[in-house]
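agent> Task received from the user: take the single chain below, predict its 3D structure, and emit structure tokens. No templates, no multimer pairing.
agent> Plan: (1) validate residues, (2) run structure prediction, (3) serialize to tokens, (4) report one or two observations.
agent> Step 1 OK, no nonstandard residues flagged.
tool_call: predict_structure(input=
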Amino acid sequence: MAALRPSQECLADRPDFGVRCYRLAHPPPPMVISMQRPDPWHGHCQLQFQHHGDRTRHQGGCSAPFKLLRAEHGADGRCEMPLLHTAGGLVGGDQLSIHLDLGPNSRGLVTSVAAQKVYGSIGRSQVRPEGSWARQQVDCQLAPGSDLEWMPQELVLYADALYEQHVQVQLAANASFLSAEIVRFGRTAAGETLAAGRWRSSLAIQRLNEDPHAPSRWELVDRLELGGAGLNDLHGLNGQPVFGTLVWAAPTPLQPDQLAQMLREARADREGLEGTMRCSVLGQGLVARYAGPSSRDARFWFSRLWERTRHLRGLSQPQIPRVWPLQEQPLRRSMSTMNTAQATPATH
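)
tool_result: status=success, residues=348
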């Protein structure tokens, strides 16, 4: 215990004051406060989808902080699986691993129950003032004839957050993969930005050849990093707080007239939405980008494109997953337009 001595400046030195006060001769060192867990969380989720009869069934499991909610089935028998992250957000050092394995002719839709939050890491710990990265790894294996839609709800990065995601997709020659992801940089309503934080994303889609001895090909290798000046530069986000990417690797090559119609519809689907929206074609599919002020408008545009891709695949109209928040029906416009066109009788 540190030695004590009477205080020279204390009122106790006065003759009319009867209580002596003391101060530490050797004050203890300052307390080190860390905003990070001693042992970062590493959650695992592994799901297998198999086609049985007229629907797809799943099996698998997960570890904390993941939790699987009750699956539902769409009109086409697709298994719709919501994932819940019970921790309420990620901090520096946390890691999430997701493995999705789709059997032949199976169909799956994987989404999240709520927006994923990543808390600030830089400057929150005297042990690691530079911060620690939160990471997520997603691996997808798609067998012949399978169809996967990876559609988590938006990611919200708090000020000074560090987040990195890798998505690896390996799909058979006639399999389909659709991904739609949206990220918000800072809590805009509170006047917050990403500050010194950074966001990294890597998406790699590899198409296998029908001949097992023939080499595979890369449908898309997309690596992005945003932070610092890139958030405000004209060739970056130009000050917009929301960024999103939709990618569709189609099961078969699209014909030129199909691509032209898809791009026309994508432009028309921007009506009433705020932000910069661009769409271009891949060797066998398409990619769409959103940059703007509204995660809702990004979600609406991507949902309309999602409906278009379903139509090209000859599948049923998509329904908004039950775990998504109550909102205006983003498919209503495109669906009502198509229904009106189909219901209008021919005139001579």
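agent> Step 4: summary for the user.
The chain has one domain: 42-314.
agent> Done.
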